[in-house]
UniProtKB/TrEMBL annotation:
It comes from the Bacteria. Keywords: DNA-binding, Phosphoprotein. This is Two-component system response regulator CreB. InterPro entries: CheY-like_superfamily (IPR011006), OmpR/PhoB-type_DNA-bd (IPR001867), Sig_transdc_resp-reg_C-effctor (IPR016032), Sig_transdc_resp-reg_receiver (IPR001789), WalR-like (IPR039420), WH-like_DNA-bd_sf (IPR036388).
Length: 222
């Protein structure tokens, strides 16, 4: 399954350019032209992997959405700001309000794709020091105890560790760990999450870092 990019841009020509460049590289792009539409999409599961947003929109300021994201459950969602405002103060403001990157218009579509790839790599990399967890290749320790995990349990845990506190839908976990196997489904994910939870509790009885979000999926709350 391709990474899903949410594009918030009210200029049709720019939106078409961005969508063409990203789709050509294998990304799935969902386009919205209004803040209200983007807010509605971000309330739905699964969440996109990355947000590209314009600052000047018909129904508000794009950085308001960035500020909201950083205070909510999608606070780890990577954000790239596209803006015609290219002076230093505007870039600094965007980054201070939580944007991960800032690209001034006009921009090179190839540079945008490169920045998207770089941000996704950073977002999907396992953090070096998730509280309590230590990762060394295919080995994971919790509070100093080496976890005896199956390959599938390891895949689930690494996916959750890659974006702590982010809600991962069952479909996202299924695709990341099992790939396109037609024999797997939501129950498969739930079953392996259950056994993974048991092993985490065995290693650290006072902790239960995997949180269930009814109807949405799972997150790691280290």
């Amino acid at each position: 399954m391709a990474d899903v990019i949410l594009l918030l841009e009210d200029d049709p020509a720019i939106a078409d350019t961005v969508q063409f460049a990203l789709r050509r590289e294998g990304f799935t792009v969902e386009h919205r032209g209004w803040l209200a539409e983007a807010r509605e999409r971000l309330r739905q599961a699964p969440a996109p992997e990355l947000l590209i947003l314009d600052i000047g929109l018909p129904d508000g300021h794009g950085l308001d959405l960035c500020r909201e994201l950083r205070a909510g459950p999608l606070k780890h969602l990577p954000v790239i700001v596209l803006s015609a405002r290219s002076d230093e103060m505007d870039r600094v403001l965007g980054l201070e309000l939580g944007a991960d990157d800032y690209l001034a218009k006009p921009f090179s579509p190839r540079e945008l794709v490169a920045r998207v790839r770089a941000l996704l790599r950073r977002a999907q990399a396992v953090p070096a020091a998730s509280p309590g967890f230590t990762v060394d290749g295919s080995r994971v320790w919790l509070d100093g105890t080496l976890l005896n995990l199956t390959k599938l349990e390891l895949g689930l845990l690494l996916k959750l560790l890659a974006a702590p506190q982010r809600i991962h839908s069952r479909d996202t976990l299924l695709d990341a760990v099992w790939g396109s196997s037609a024999d797997s489904g939501d129950r498969t994910v739930d079953t392996h999450i259950k056994t993974l939870r048991a092993k985490l509790r065995e290693a650290a009885p006072a902790r239960d870092p995997i949180k269930t979000h009814r109807g949405m999926g799972y997150s790691l709350e280290p």
